[in-house]
């Protein structure tokens, strides 16, 4: 499969042959699902915490004697039935991470990127170099590339001017070729790669 390359003015700069094997038909669908679920689970902080009966501060003294008061028997101020008492089966800090092996992650990324390429949602640019960290200059690049909706910019390395220029645009996010994952590929309307970043991704996906 060939994909066209543009410059930041939106002019064609030739074509590039995709060097990794595209995933077609239904293969890889489960890998994508497993990888995205694992990614989202890993984003959960897992810090929710409640006190059970043993964690509630207070005396172990019986509130009143067992018989003779006319009230229901009670054994502890920390009872879950009482205001301020412990919580039954409440949440405790936990790790939500799920294990996904490296080959499954690679298949998922290859499947997701294959579908975006086939749908025409991938734009490859020679390079994105801004002379200053001005948002106005970056907006000009977005207009020249005819990007509508949300977009993910994937650069080869972190660029300070690009980072500062894009941070005021709510529909634009940045990442680099090393950090790109399946969830990133699926989320935006358009994917914009610099040529160097796309070649790095190809190298990642060509490994056995």
Structure commentary:
The chain is of the alpha/beta class. It folds into 2 domains: 2-44 and 101-206, Ribosomal protein L4/L1 (Ribosomal Protein L4, Chain: A, 3-Layer(aba) Sandwich), CATH 3.40.1370.10; 45-95, no CATH class. The chain has helices at 29-42, 102-118, 135-144, 160-166, 182-186, 195-206, and strands at residues 2-6, 12-17, 122-125, 151-155, 172-176, 190-194. Strands 2-1-3-6-4-5 form a 6-stranded mixed β-sheet. The protein starts with a strand and ends with a helix. The model has no long low-confidence stretch (mean pLDDT 93).
Helix and strand arrangement:
Elements: E1 2-6, E2 12-17, H1 29-42, H2 102-118, E3 122-125, H3 135-144, E4 151-155, H4 160-166, E5 172-176, H5 182-186, E6 190-194, H6 195-206
Parallel strand pairs: 1-3, 3-6, 4-5, 4-6
Antiparallel strand pairs: 1-2
Helix pairs in contact: 1-2, 3-4
């Amino acid at each position: 499969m060939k994909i066209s390359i543009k410059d930041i003015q939106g002019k064609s700069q030739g074509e590039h042959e995709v060097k990794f094997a595209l995933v077609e038909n239904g293969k890889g669908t489960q890998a994508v699902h497993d990888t995205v679920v694992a990614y989202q689970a890993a984003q959960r902080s897992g810090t929710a915490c409640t006190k059970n009966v043993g964690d509630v501060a207070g005396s172990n003294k019986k509130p009143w004697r067992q018989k003779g008061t006319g009230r229901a028997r009670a054994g502890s101020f920390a009872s879950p039935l009482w205001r301020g008492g412990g919580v039954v089966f409440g949440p405790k800090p936990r790790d939500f991470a799920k294990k996904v092996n490296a080959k499954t992650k690679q298949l998922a990324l290859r499947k997701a990127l294959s579908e975006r390429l086939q749908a025409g949602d991938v734009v490859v640019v020679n390079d994105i170099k801004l002379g200053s960290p001005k948002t106005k200059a970056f907006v000009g690049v977005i207009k020249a590339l005819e990007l509508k909706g949300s977009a993910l910019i994937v650069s080869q390395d972190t660029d300070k001017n690009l980072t500062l220029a894009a941070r005021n645009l709510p529909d634009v996010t940045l990442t680099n070729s090393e950090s790109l994952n399946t969830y990133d590929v699926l989320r935006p309307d358009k994917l914009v790669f610099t040529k160097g970043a796309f070649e790095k991704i190809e190298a990642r996906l060509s490994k056995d």
